[in-house]
Amino acid sequence: MLSLLRFFNRTRIYIHIYLVLCLCLCLYSSTVSSFRSQTPTLFSLPISSTMSAESANAIQRSQVDLMDLIDWSGVECLNQSTSHSVANALKQGYRDDDGLNLESDADEQLLIYIPFLQVIKLHSIIVKGPEEDGPKTVKLFSNKEHMGFSNVNDYPASDTVVLSPDHLKGKPVVLKYVKFQNVRSLTIFIEDNQSDSEVTKVQKIGLVGTTVETTNMKGLKKIEDGH
Fold first, then answer.
1. Beta strands 173-174; 204-211: pairing state
2. Which residues face 193 on adjacent strands?
């Protein structure tokens, strides 16, 4: 009789332990499920991919139109038509009018120099143009001054893009971001156009990115010139 009582007591203890373990397991499963539902990307993607996506999203949210940071007094465009200047493609109001174009003069090439009032990070560029006469091969140079057609090929481009029909309709071209982290000036070399015609037409140039600091480059240049 005593042995039977001991057996039942042990059985009760084992059942109690089993129930406690089941309860703990249920609570743990519920917590994990809740955590997964709140952070789906953490479990659905590899860690490296998740970090890349988060970085890309952060970059996208912080981008602005850099037009107001252009130092217009220093903007230059080589081989532009006198009646169809770079202002048509670059300045607010002008660039949104599809009837206004920047056009090349002697041949199809254009070389545009754009200085900035502040140091910027350039993320992407928008180049709109007609389907046939719009730009095709575009080379971008960061912080290269005094470039001309005679020496533009002496320097490696920070990035080279070939514009598609979608790009000519306004689709942004995402650049090699690491190449445009501390940009004081940007040189745009339009090498050819879509149909290899003599005249290249550009309806709009848009620059998208962020500022690096609040240093006024124009003011800094004046101080340096004074010493």
1. unpaired
2. 135
